[in-house]
Design a protein that fits this description.
about 30% helix; alpha/beta; seven-stranded mixed beta sheet; globular; about 400 residues; about 30% strand; Archaeosine Trna-guanine Transglycosylase, Chain: A, domain 4; Transcription Regulator spoIIAA
Length: about 400
């Protein structure tokens, strides 16, 4: 049985696009299409050819997006049936085998969209709840088949569907799917509790940021924990307190969570309460600051407050390419303020999740700012993506983090 129950269309690609697809790029824009044999509907399979009618690949068509085709397969012709999907997923799961088989970690990314060969589809797991996040209407006609496959392979208790704003607003999106909600299994009556390296966290799959939690910083949170024993730790843009909890669990002298969102800080308190049975966490003073990060850092410096570990993990500063210059300026200002409250010889942890800001530009900005402040950083480590957030193409690389002593 064919997994993709929609129509097939033939599409001839421009030579530069053929080369890009062969190199593994997953996106084809409107200008890359030379010919197609008929009008395509969302989710139709596009059979891709070069100008000599030689097979190039297969993708999902999205007439309502600037990205017209998202490439699923390239190379030799293949039948994209359920067996093909299952084999592809099994290979992805194998890469994550250590995570999947770890009873101490029950929250991770199962499918990372383009980077795992499923462009426009993210699947995150929180305990027995899966969250599908779609960035294209092209997956909507195949949603029932996706649910059936994950039911068999993962056996979740429930599946939550989330759509990005563009997909939710698309004319072809069914009204019943426009709002995030459970599409399989029992309804949610509150947050889902899951484990990360033995620590309990709550996730809000329907109303939380991303799919309910920032799973991509798991490894960096663990690194912060190792640096925190006996230290005063400041977690800026703390959200629900992930870095804070790891620091407290490692025996930090004190932890301060700083965020503009009161609900996020309330969730941080909940996460600390979930782990109150851990002696180190129960014994660590946890302070909350609800304020704009830039303003709060300035005030803390004026008050003479100093910390031995300062974590700067802001949201993306560059949503579009034209934002890159402004983003680098914001990182420079943020690092300067962070150093203003960092004790001499303390550790600065600076992260960026802006995919449009190249890693080297970010690292150079951090280093230059520190040197300009008279606090040149001794780099301890530079980190990138965790195993469940692989990099499959250049635009898929977004997360970068530097740990430096200054």
């Amino acid at each position: 049985m064919s997994f993709f129950s929609t129509e097939n269309i033939s599409v001839q690609l421009a030579p530069p696009v053929v080369r890009a697809v062969k190199k593994g790029h997953p996106w084809i824009f409107d200008k890359g299409l030379l010919k197609q044999n008929k009008t395509a509907q969302p989710g139709d399979l596009a059979i891709l050819y070069d100008q000599k009618r030689k097979f190039v690949g297969i993708g999902l068509f999205d007439p309502e997006s600037p990205i017209k085709i998202r490439v699923l397969h390239r190379g030799k012709p293949a039948t994209l049936d359920r067996a093909w999907i299952e084999e592809k997923l099994e290979s992805i799961f194998q890469i994550r085998a250590d995570l999947i088989n770890d009873p101490e970690t029950t929250g991770y990314r199962l499918v990372s969209g383009e980077n795992d060969g499923f462009p426009g589809l993210v699947v995150d797991r929180y305990e027995d709840t899966l969250v599908f996040k779609l960035d294209t209407v092209a997956w909507l006609p195949h949603l029932d088949q996706l649910v059936a496959v994950f039911q068999d392979l993962v056996q979740p208790q429930r599946i939550v569907l989330r759509l990005n704003r563009t997909v939710a607003a698309a004319p072809s999106c069914p009204a019943k799917l426009k709002k995030a909600g459970v599409i399989y299994g029992p309804d949610l009556s509150g947050p889902v509790i899951f484990l990360e390296n033995g620590l309990k966290f709550e996730a809000e799959p329907i109303i939380g940021q991303k799919t309910g939690f920032f799973l991509d910083q798991r490894d960096n949170r663990a690194r912060v924990g190792k640096l925190s024993p006996g230290k005063d730790v400041l977690n800026v843009f703390s959200y629900t307190g992930g870095f804070s909890l790891y620091a407290a669990n490692a025996g930090a002298k004190s932890v301060t969570s700083l965020d503009l969102s009161r609900p996020a800080l309330d969730a941080a308190l909940n996460n600390f309460q979930l782990n109150a049975h851990q002696p180190q966490i129960a014994a660590t003073p946890h302070h909350l600051i609800c304020d704009d990060a830039f303003d709060a850092l300035h005030k803390l410096a004026e008050e003479g407050k100093k910390y031995e570990v300062v974590i700067l993990d802001p949201p993306s500063f560059a949503k579009k390419q034209v934002d890159v210059s402004g983003a680098l300026n914001a990182y420079e200002r943020l690092v300067s303020l962070g150093l203003g409250v960092l004790k001499k010889g303390g550790v600065l942890v600076a992260a960026s999740c802006s995919s449009r800001v190249p890693a080297e530009s970010f690292f150079e900005t951090v280093a230059r700012t520190a040197a300009k402040a008279g606090r040149p950083l001794q780099v301890i480590e530079r980190t990138t993506h965790a195993v469940d957030h692989p990099i499959g193409f250049p635009e898929g690389a977004y997360l970068k983090c530097v740990f430096g002593r200054g």
